[in-house]
Design brief:
The protein is α/β, with parallel strands linked by helices. The chain has a single domain, classed as P-loop containing nucleotide triphosphate hydrolases (Rossmann fold), CATH 3.40.50. 32% of the residues lie in helices and 21% in strands. α3 links the parallel β5 and β6.
Length: 195
């Protein structure tokens, strides 16, 4: 059965700053700047309004939240990086936590990097992409909030992101948590990575 059809069997594993449990299932991590729409994207993919907590305040996710999607895979919601209004020491702790998670998880199959289609490509996203490439960790760039742009603006934004990050054809995938645009394309890539 396709993983996307198992979202009804979703279970929250827990919230972990460290000592992540070994679940022996393919894992997909979601990363991105604070307020990029990570939680909304996760909820859209999971057909849920409340799997991941959505907040208007950047920096709400402060640990790594793990969700089992049936018996198919695990989603890991990573803390946002960037302009969250939290002390620098907390941001440094998050950075260390994310780096440890990415380097230690043997079942990690894909890191989905969410970028805001309305913003210029950000250096921090580029740094994460570079680090993943250097570590041979597969990644996928998804441009969120495309519903807030006119079609021409969206195409221009996607071209700029593709060029700045030197992405392969088919990236970034345009995505909207409101309209569901891009949901199936992202699921296709998740299922391909977890096979």
């Amino acid at each position: 059965m396709a993983m996307r059809n198992q979202v009804g069997a979703l279970s929250f594993v827990g919230s972990f700053p460290r000592n992540w449990p070994e679940l022996n299932m393919p894992e997909v991590a979601f990363a991105g700047r604070s307020n990029v729409g990570k939680s909304s994207a996760l909820n859209t993919l999971l057909n849920s309004k409340k799997a991941a907590r959505v907040s208007g305040t950047p920096g709400r996710t402060q640990a790594i939240n793990l969700f089992k999607v049936g018996s198919g895979c695990v989603f890991a919601d990573l803390p946002g990086y960037g302009f969250a209004k939290v002390p620098e020491a907390v941001q440094d702790a998050w950075k260390g936590m994310i780096e440890s998670y990415l380097s230690e998880r043997e079942d990690l199959r894909l890191v989905i990097i969410l970028v805001d289609a309305r913003r210029k490509p950000q250096e921090m996203d580029g740094m994460l992409l570079y680090a993943l490439t250097e570590s041979d960790i597969p990644s996928l760039v998804v441009a969120t909030k495309v519903d807030k742009l006119k079609k021409q603006q969206m195409q221009k934004s996607l071209r700029a992101i593709r060029k700045e990050f030197n992405l392969a054809a088919g990236q970034p995938i345009p995505f909207s948590s409101l309209s569901g645009v891009g949901r199936d394309e992202v699921w296709d890539r998740i299922e391909q990575a977890c096979r």
